[in-house]
């Protein structure tokens, strides 16, 4: 199965399926395994990935032995085009939790990737509510890693467009007042790191 996961050619894929109609099902049945989609994600092979995800959508959410989904692997290897293609197919992929509860949104927030952060939050605004095993949202992570610009970008999406003014205000307060596992709010983190610009923003909304 390990060598099969390295198949990159669409014709070779169907040759394997002709020999074993359960070829892809074998990956699905095993927990924590590198699927062909994981391999394609590392390489940024868009054509191959689109063929695999069409046949086996479940692979997009499957974690490998290291606790990473295909989107996590694509991000780690700077395969931006493939990441955007996968998110376009299923926006909720930005919410898939890998090891330590880290989602693709958390990853780009830590890196300060403004472009992908904007794309992810536009595709799935509710992903801003997701927390890691440490209770951190993407906003917590951005501040802890001195990514103030990423924090500001995420902050502009806090007001969900589908909510009325009063509901939006309540939503804002809930998100911005969330505490991580150590009991830190966004204001606590920003103040402790002397991030004056960032600390003034959450204070405005809390």
Automatic annotation (TrEMBL):
Q: Which domain of life is it from?
A: Eukaryota
Please give the SMART domains that the UniProt record associates with this protein: ANK
Q: Name one Pfam family in it.
A: Ank_2
Q: Kindly give the InterPro entries that the UniProt entry links to this protein.
A: Ankyrin_rpt, Ankyrin_rpt-contain_sf
Tell me the PANTHER family matching this sequence: ANKYRIN REPEAT PROTEIN, HOMEOBOX PROTEIN WARIAI
- Its recorded name reads Uncharacterized protein
